[in-house]
Design goal:
- The chain has about 325 residues and is α/β, with parallel strands linked by helices.
- The chain has 2 domains: about 170 residues, Alpha-Beta Complex (Quinone Oxidoreductase, Chain A, domain 1); about 140 residues, NAD(P)-binding Rossmann-like Domain (Rossmann fold, 3-Layer(aba) Sandwich).
- The protein is about 25% helix and about 25% strand.
- The protein is built from 11 helices and 15 strands.
- Strands 3, 4, 5, 6, 7, 14 and 15 form a 7-stranded mixed beta sheet that branches. A 6-stranded parallel beta sheet has the order 10-9-8-11-12-13, with helices on both faces.
- α1 crosses α11, α4 crosses α5 and α4 crosses α10.
- It starts with a strand and ends with a strand.
Length: about 325
């Protein structure tokens, strides 16, 4: 089989490897589509310490169950599936608290930038009928968005601010409007992403040309949004989110920042506005819910650019340049 193997930095090579055989309780998946995300950009920039090279990366993928190992009971060859990336030790303090996303001994299996990969059955979910392989590749970022939404603990009727109209920002837009929010104001400088946000029901603002603070106040009776999601990972946007959010409100940091980045925060602002600042890391126990959400969301506008396996590096570079929204590699 062919695999795009990452060797550090922007060095990915297309290599021939044996097709792995599924061990007990494993499923061999023939990969159909693998999405690109901001984490992949950090990886090729050597800014994501969880993944030492050499490694097959890619963690947003779907495919067909090609074979199953002994003991597999819920998946059959031929099933259309979406794969949950990585699993946890199940025994550390955080896993025992039900916070597996904070596991200190997280195990990451080979990723989806390959024609085949083997994964434990417990990470394999059946793809709902009517959901394409490409749409199914949005399950992982959707699971992350669900966790961020859960942390916000919003009442119905809330007004939401979202900084960033990439995949997670646009998925949060839909979750908000499906879950009782009456208004979503989304800030995004790229016109094609704002167009999708408007199509999904958000008030889309160009922060480079429009007065975002004034619009946020105008759309929320002068109060500011009850919650602001920072969905880019830019330090300056976290600073802005704390300024924009309503008194007594919550800021959720769901964007993946450069690990070395530093943000400027005024402690007095947290005190005087009595704010809550939450970090949202990955997806504890939300993947199965994300799979159930897939048929109920408008996903097609988030898709577009597709690359063959041999152009995986170009696909990641395109993500870094802000082309498209959800870019997909198809082995």
């Amino acid at each position: 089989m062919r695999a795009a193997v990452w060797h550090g930095g922007e060095h990915l090579t297309l290599e021939e490897r044996p097709v792995p055989a599924p061990a007990a309780n494993e499923v061999l998946v023939k990969v159909a589509a693998c999405g690109i995300c901001g984490t992949d950009v950090h990886i090729i920039e050597d800014k994501f310490p969880l993944y030492p090279p050499p490694r097959v990366i890619g963690h947003e993928y779907t495919g067909t169950a090609a074979a199953v190992g002994s003991g597999v009971t819920k998946v059959r060859p031929g099933d259309r599936v979406v794969v949950e990336p990585g699993y946890t030790c199940g025994d550390c303090y955080f896993c025992r608290q039900g916070r597996e996303n904070l596991c200190e001994r997280r195990i990451v299996h080979p990723g989806g930038f390959a024609e085949y990969t083997c994964v434990p059955e417990r990470l394999v979910h059946l793809l709902p009928e009517g959901v394409s392989f490409e749409m199914g590749a949005l399950a992982e970022p959707l699971a992350c968005a669900l966790h961020a939404w859960d942390l916000a603990a919003l009442p119905s009727g809330a007004r939401i601010g979202i900084l960033g109209g990439g995949g997670v920002g646009l998925l949060l837009t839909q979750l908000a409007l499906h879950s009782g929010a009456v208004k979503v104001i989304l800030s995004e400088p790229r016109e094609h992403r704002r167009a999708v946000a408007k199509q999904l029901g958000a008030i889309a603002v160009d922060p480079m040309r429009e007065d975002l603070p004034a619009i946020l106040r105008e759309e929320t009776d002068g109060l500011g949004p009850e919650v602001v999601f920072e969905a880019v990972g830019h330090p300056a946007l976290l600073t802005q989110a704390l300024e924009f959010v309503q008194r007594g409100g919550t800021v959720v940091e769901v964007g993946v920042a450069d690990p070395a980045a530093r943000a400027t925060i005024r402690p007095y602002l947290l005190f005087e506005k009595e704010l809550t600042l939450r970090g949202s890391h990955m997806r504890p126990h939300t993947f199965h819910r994300a799979v159930r959400w897939l048929p109920r969301l408008t996903l097609a506008p988030l898709l577009g650019l597709e690359f063959p396996l041999g152009e995986t590096l170009e696909a990641i570079r395109s993500q870094r340049e802000g082309k498209g929204i959800k870019i997909v590699v198809k082995p």
